[in-house]
Amino acid sequence: MNAPRTAWLFLTPALLVLGVFFLLPVIGALGLSLTDYDLYALADIHNLRFVALHNYGALLQRPLFWSALGHTVYFVAVGVPLSMVTSLGAALLLNSPLARCKPFFRTALFAPVVTTVVAVAVIWRYLFNTRYGIANFVLGHLGLHPIDWLGDPHWAMPAIILFAVWKNFGYNMIIFLAGLQAIPPELYEAARIDGASAWRQLRHITLPLLAPTLLMVSILTVAGYFQLFAEPYVMTEGGPLQSTTSVLYLMYDEGFQWWNLGEASAVAFLLFVIMFAVTAVMLRLARRSASFEGDAA
Amino acid sequence: MKPRRPQPQSAAGRRRSCRRLALAALALGCSLLGGCGKTSNGSQTLTFWTFGPEGEVMQQLLPAFERTHPDIHVKLQQLPLSAAHQKLLTAFAGGSTPDLCQLGNTWIPELVALHALAPLQPYVDHSSVVQPQDYFANIWATNVIDGTLYGVPWYVDTRLLFYRSDLLKKAGFDAPPVTWAQWRTMLAALSDPAQHRYGVLLPTNEYEQLMSLALQQPDPLLRDGGRYGNFESAGFKRALTFYVDTFRLQQAPAITNVEAGNPWEEFGRGVYAFYLSGPWNIGEFRARLPASEQADWSTAPLPGPERAGVGVAGGSSLVIFRASQHKAAAWALIEYLSLPTVQQRLYGLVGDMPPRRSSWEGGALRDDPKARAFREQLEHVRPTPAVPEWERIANAMQLQAARAIAGELTIDQAAAEMDRQADRILEKRRWMLDRATRARPAAR
Amino acid sequence: MSPRLARALIHGLLIGGTLVALFPLLWMLSVSFMPPGAASALPPPLWPAHATLGNYRLLFLRAGMGRYLLNSLLVASAITLLSLACNLMAGYAFAKLRFAGRERLFRALLGALVIPAQVAMLPLFLLLKTIGLVDSYAGVIMPAMASVFGIFLVRQYARGIPDELLEAARLDGAGEWRIFSQIVLPLLKPVMVTLAIFSFLAAWNDFMWPLIVLTGQGHYTLPLGLASLAREHAQDTELMMAGSVITVLPVLLLFLAMQRYYLEGLLLGSVKG
């Protein structure tokens, strides 16, 4: 048996599944986005119109699309750095030679990652309850005014960001931990002998050596956070005053609430283009810094 | 309108929810054992979808039906109300509609536009049970789309005032308000935001309240045969102004029904003197408020610009799906559920008000003072626009109203935005209507 | 900073972080044993004054939670087994078998990671409708039988397998399938466990797609059942917490039991990558 044929045989099941259940629908979605496929068309295909790029044009003129994009960018711009810093901090603590009971702490910090979004969002909804929630109880003890977390358009997104960071930081923490453990201990040994402070060790050894991991993780996290949906779906249903309506939520609303499949597909593709652009820029940065490193070495 | 909003539960209601859960589980168990389709002895299985609490009490109503119709087995499926609209459309899109189903009457046009429902007039013509003239005319009318009947009203719903008669009396008002002006005066007297007391609770994410006020106006909500929004009409703006002013004057808190938590208890504590809501709350208040407070609350027709008693023609109908293989059996179940005695039992079990006048003649309903306001208003209810897009337009309307409440938009801006969104949503409908008019001369 | 102070600081931060991470879960567990209404009080009670199993009894005996649990187990297990098979084969092929366009195809797959899965959902629903899989277990399972992430993970790990090993086997006349099943698979064991847990967790926790494709309660998975309960019983904090416990506990226990393999596999795979 020759190698290419074997390879294709090994690839067939996965490619078939991905092709039929992902690629084909994605192409279908692109086609749908050029039509006004809706409930009327679902009932009778003669009610379908080809509208070319009209859905896209209409979306770009729709304030709700822009505000949904704004909310998503807000979530990504605040959530990703916060989540990365938390992950890195936790990983540094766990990697510290001084820390004890590491397996316990690692497990505990990672636990939220494996939980079910729906279930923990239900929990957090109660923690954020204006009257009986623990969040406001703690604020009250600190002498702060209670916050209408999920009812105030200004606070709903921060609440969701807090929830998302809590839920997700453990994942990146494990990856960072792996990156940290890959750094040869001799480097720190040498630095210590040179009398470098912990801070200097972090800046001059840890962060540079972790840079490729950091970039990879940030790209994956950005891509993931752009797909914000389940959190607002369960906690706020996109409200209050649509302040937590993300692009994906808008797509879901258009598509599965109102069955405007054409418009919903256009939303999905616009999101795709935006995500593609952002991650492409980040990848480019990653590659450049990698090649820079290569030159330096 | 949606037959019911999901209602938060308090301790008092929890016992009931336990019972409901028990019944739901029973229903599920039965349906699992029951299997589906025709069984060997020629009997048939009907799939019946309900939304909200009706499904839970059906277990008490169905045995009598299955006794008299031994060849029909009813497989009940209960869906959460808040997911009802989506589930129906998904079922239609996926080709898995039930035989018959409970359907909020504002959703009928939508499913008719999808050709999902079976016309029912032939069945009514031969029925000795379903007598159209016995039904409240405007409720019946919501089931007739372009001259064809698609549903039989099952229970009715109109929104009106629940009020604390003792608080009104203490403030010097002997009778509930009849006009908006009187209502405003009372709201002002009964509100004290600093003490966390408000005249009325109007959850900002429910559109029924604003819609009820708007339906009292002479201007229709849509114009040109449902082609365009009519929210910039003088009438609608009047209603919107009254609605938004209630928040701006702090006579209602700007909160959603999620944040409102347990409105019954707060109504009982006097946080709200008025509560604009539907008939099921008669049962809720009876169950949740202590006996000593039962004399302190009552119901009144919805105050209007000049007179009271005009409201929305809401409720749920029973419909048969076009794809059903058991239409005759489904109709037999509809007839059974339309019997005045059965409707009276349904009222007793969940407080659903019957759509036919003869059902009001007997049972607990006849002499119930708290139901009287509903009976009065039901003669003057007005339907919502019979366009498939209405549910969506109403949601858009409420969202803009909420922005006006939050101070983001003025009344004029909000009304203009509502029209803009309604026109956008109705674009496809205009195209289809125009195409139909173009096609008609050609066909002749 | 003295080492003692540093140690205290590090442990203080670790304990604080652990509290934040675990508190919502512990609170959930505690409230789930409270009688109805007990959690809505000030100050918020942290411990049930009178512990009761009533919420659980209600959920299992009357709300059909047992059936949702079985559905979840069935769906998640099937997805795990099937996706494991597909992803292991594909990941190995991308890592170790040479064929024209390998890198391009792999890059294309990685590029597909950027496409939100939800883009495909609407047409996918229509597709499943035409083949009659709406409201069936297969409708949930089949689209999840392969994942780009899984293939990526396996490839990263499999790249660490020395070529000489495979070449030696080939010289000995072993068939490709034999090489895969007898040499490669044992070496891939850590990543298999990782991937199995990943797939199981993802399938167990998945919400949006089952919500769309499962129209009847008979096939509901736990998250769907819980969300459906949450809508009808939003104010029943205690009941909802019991439902959350039932939903979360199986995956947490699975993680606790398997975490050594899981985290080891993850770390190893990450280093090799």
Keyphrases for this structure?
heterotrimer, A: 297 residues, mainly alpha, 13 helices, B: 444 residues, alpha/beta, 5-stranded mixed beta sheet, 19 helices, 14% strand, globular
Q: Could you outline the blueprint of secondary structure elements for this entry?
A:
The complex is a heterotrimer of chains A (297), B (444) and C (273).
Chain A: H1 3-32, H2 39-43, H3 54-60, H4 63-95, H5 102-114, H6 117-127, H7 134-141, H8 153-182, H9 185-193, H10 198-226, H11 230-235, H12 247-257, H13 261-296
Chain B: H1 11-34, E1 44-51, H2 54-68, E2 72-79, H3 84-94, E3 100-104, H4 108-113, H5 121-125, H6 137-141, E4 144-145, E5 148-149, E6 152-157, E7 160-164, H7 165-170, H8 180-190, E8 198-201, H9 208-215, E9 222-223, E10 228-229, H10 234-248, H11 257-260, H12 263-269, E11 272-277, H13 280-288, E12 297-300, E13 314-320, H14 327-338, H15 340-350, H16 369-378, H17 390-405, H18 411-425, H19 427-443
Parallel strand pairs in B: 1-2, 1-3, 8-11
Antiparallel strand pairs in B: 3-13, 4-5, 6-13, 7-11, 7-12, 9-10
Chain C: H1 3-32, H2 54-62, H3 65-96, H4 102-112, H5 117-130, H6 137-141, H7 148-158, H8 163-171, H9 176-187, H10 189-205, H11 208-213, H12 222-232, H13 237-272
In short:
With 297 residues, chain A is mostly helical. Chain A contains 13 helices and no strands. Chain B has helices spanning 11-34, 54-68, 84-94, 108-113, 121-125, 137-141, 165-170, 180-190, 208-215, 234-248, 257-260, 263-269, 280-288, 327-338, 340-350, 369-378, 390-405, 411-425, 427-443; strands at 44-51, 72-79, 100-104, 144-145, 148-149, 152-157, 160-164, 198-201, 222-223, 228-229, 272-277, 297-300, 314-320.
